[in-house]
Design brief:
Layout: H1 3-10, H2 13-39, H3 44-47, H4 61-70, H5 88-120, H6 128-148, H7 156-165, H8 171-194, H9 200-220
């Protein structure tokens, strides 16, 4: 997962190409959480200034650096109060999936845009900056979507899992995952950084990326690299 760090060292311009995708992807992800929570009856995020498209309100230094350098990352979590929801189980799932859904929509948009450009042989494809920016919009949104679907706290996927299964699995299971889940996640990330044989999350993200690129190639009829 450290390959991107090596690429940036070789070509520092890549950092500039990554920034638009980084800022927009993280900002819209967190805004979607806040907006859906507000629509479900909880104004906590709105009152705290988090229902905004201002990237500074959502910026997390470590999470942003991780997304830039190693392919996964996060923004500052949006505060919510489920007790304000109209229907707690339904609305918790909707709010948890809002950020992922936003990244999916952006992924589809930029994937289709890239596919159309390839099919029509638009001259912008010969512009290195445009190509890199489009690809990083695809890569970052896919990474955020897949990473946040991992069912371990504090990620969105765990909130959905717990909400759906809390009445079907022993409470001790969720107590264990809440207590140790983030350490399990950290262990997986560190193991992948140290030894590629244990890079479970990296393989998971690459699988998703290859799937999307294959779909683009199938739609456009042109190999997508």
């Amino acid at each position: 997962m450290l390959l991107r760090f090596e690429l940036i060292k070789e070509n520092p311009l890549l950092l500039l190409y990554m920034l638009p995708a980084l800022v927009l992807s993280l900002t819209l992800h967190e805004w979607a959480h806040a907006f859906v929570a507000y629509k479900c009856g909880d104004s906590t995020a709105r009152n705290l200034g988090r229902m905004t498209l201002n990237p500074i309100a959502h910026f997390d230094l470590i999470g942003s650096l991780c997304l830039l350098l190693v392919g996964f990352g996060w923004a500052k979590p949006v505060p919510i109060n489920p007790r304000n929801f109209q229907k707690i189980r339904r609305d918790t799932i909707l709010v948890s999936l809002a950020g992922v859904a936003m990244n999916f929509l952006m992924l589809v948009f930029f994937t289709l845009l890239m596919s159309i450009c390839i099919r029509l042989d638009i001259e912008l494809l010969f512009n290195e900056a445009f190509m890199y920016i489009m690809q990083y919009f695809i890569v970052f949104n896919l990474s955020l979507m897949l990473f946040n679907l991992i069912p371990l706290p504090p990620l969105d996927g765990y909130n959905v899992l717990e909400t759906l299964l809390v009445r079907k699995l022993p409470i001790n299971f969720f107590m264990f995952v809440r207590r140790y889940g983030r350490w399990i996640l950290l262990g997986l990330l560190l193991a992948g950084s140290i030894n590629t044989r244990f890079d479970v999350i990296g393989m998971y993200l690459r699988w998703g990326l290859n799937l999307v690129f294959s779909a683009v190639s199938a739609i456009s009829g042109v190999p997508f690299i």
